[in-house]
């Protein structure tokens, strides 16, 4: 592996362009666009205030920069650096901004979720969508970009509206059988929309494109319910992570549960491989010691390295009992992700914060557990092959493939705490983000 030098960053705002050619990052009120392979600066833009959100258009020709405090969105063009666009929501305020799938419309959500404003860059026309619901995932586009679903709240009832994206005409409008709709998400094939209720009510509803209720799923009644969901890339499976520390898999034919995965604190199956991260202090040749020590020697003296050992089962994982009398308890399956080939599912149970669970979907069983020294901050699958990258807020990256597991130390001085990982669309490089810096990790072709 090769690593770039560290570059300054603010707000974890670093994004590869969809075509993979460019890399955008922000430093306070400046937007820096680099070549993704050489990291040479291509463009430098100055915004009116500190940037709080950036997003590429689908064709990689424009970049949106949102400044929520000011209620302003600025749009920059890569082809025409002199062209610029400013959208000011004024007294209505701004809490969210995103591109439409065609990359020529911007959707702004005003404060208090009074409305969504659709701005056209081509015709300069404006459309309004009323009554959007203030929830975690209240807007969703189909993967082909043809339709948009919006969660709405009217007269103390939940509704979903489906719009055609090329002219923003309303296609369907229907009410949902939810107490307090929490989120919506399209299946990758765009045929089914999943909607789920607040954590106080375990309910997952599946709707067709024309608004028909295909199925309703409820695993149990009274305890806290759904915490996360994820569609498989083939749209064949819907994984539901719950507060009871289980993942339930629904199939796309009957929408019934085909299996459920538990996350016990003790791994006892001999068919499960447990990789445990262990730290080792470097051995230093005393004859090489000088005073004062050289910078390279000093850094090697005080740096610890880590590697994976395969643990003998049974293995007891670090389990944290949640504090019951506090809001948002650290309990249940909060992270889910399918591999690009549909063969594996990675999960994290918040009660066991240092472990990543990797399930074999073909055999419907637990394949691997990665036990880390620190809390899992995030993980993401390679978009081209079954390879999982994990970060834990340290200066190390962890890679798992069906062939094995490896710990990679990011070289460099200073404390580079990786809290987010983003794969390049080709799968041959990764963007590693910390609160104040970022670097790019390039994987060798042999490794790829």
Automatic annotation (TrEMBL):
Pfam family name, one: WD40
InterPro entries per UniProt: Centrosome-WD_assoc, Quino_amine_DH_bsu, WD40/YVTN_repeat-like_dom_sf, WD40_rpt
Domain of life, per lineage: Eukaryota
GO cellular component, as recorded: microtubule organizing center; MWP complex
Protein name per its UniProtKB record: WRP73 protein
